[in-house]
Amino acid sequence: VIVGGTVSQVVKSRNPAVKEGEYIADYAGWQSYSVGGGPGGGVFGVNKLDPNMAPISTALSVLGMPGMTAWHGLMNIGKPKPGETVAVSAASGAVGSMVGQLAKLKGCRAVGIAGGKDKCDYVVKELGFDACVDYKAEGANLHKALAAAAPKGIDIYFENVGGAVQQAVLPLLNDFARVPLCGMISQYNATEFTGGPNWAMLLIKRIMVQGFIVSDHADQTGKFFAEVAPLIKAGKIKYREDIVKGIDKAPAAFIGLLKGKNFGKLLVQVSDDPTRK
Ligand SMILES: NC(=O)c1ccc[n+]([C@@H]2O[C@H](COP(=O)([O-])OP(=O)(O)OC[C@H]3O[C@@H](n4cnc5c(N)ncnc54)[C@H](OP(=O)(O)O)[C@@H]3O)[C@@H](O)[C@H]2O)c1
Known about the structure:
alpha/beta, single chain, binds NADP nicotinamide-adenine-dinucleotide phosphate
């Protein structure tokens, strides 16, 4: 079974702590039914979900692993200060959309990078970023377009994609910039090494690059919830989910993700969701 975070409804339970009909967030993978789970399991500790508090799908998006990834990378590695400029790639996605909104709440200028006009419009008009650069439309002009969107340079680059976008961003980093290295989606299928960033620039500008994997920071989950759940409840953080129906559609949806076909956190719904009217 291909691994993956899941939200499930309990259909049979011999565990008194988990009742039939309840909802849990787990790590049950790409399958319609799973055996196991229950409190104490899973990467982030299985959560019992309250559908009245937030839609159960948010345990996989803004209140789950992607939300925590954005929060941890930005707050604990990026350490944003008011007045700084934060740039984030894959800005309309599950992680990127949260990064920019948290940056705004911290008093920073938020610059998104995304593929296509619709995604960029959403990032600026709905999410409230200061600017968004469409890397697909800009092509070879991307560096110039980014320089115009970040006139004071970039203090934090939240890296989600690598590749050509990274090449355009790096020369714009300011002295003492921080780079939470979250993802390199444009290079996941690469079969050859195409060269990396110029380390001399990292040295001269005293730039800090820190790779991280969110599951190493499960101890931060409580803090993440305490800070972010009220922001979502108050409508200060918006989110978007791209829900594909049917497990048979999962492979195509996954391939589409690697081409930017998703718009928001990509989720696959494998059975009816009684909480969704
Ligand atoms: N370190 C960790 O613990 C951790 C945890 C979760 C996620 N991640 C990483 O964080 C990144 C964002 O994840 P997510 O769940 O929020 O995904 P997402 O942004 O919802 O979806 C992925 C987006 O990446 C962009 N993309 C795909 N191929 C690209 C390419 N060749 N060049 C440039 N952009 C491309 C597309 O957006 P556009 O249409 O805008 O290009 C696509 O919609 C991914 O790299 C993921 O692997 C890391």
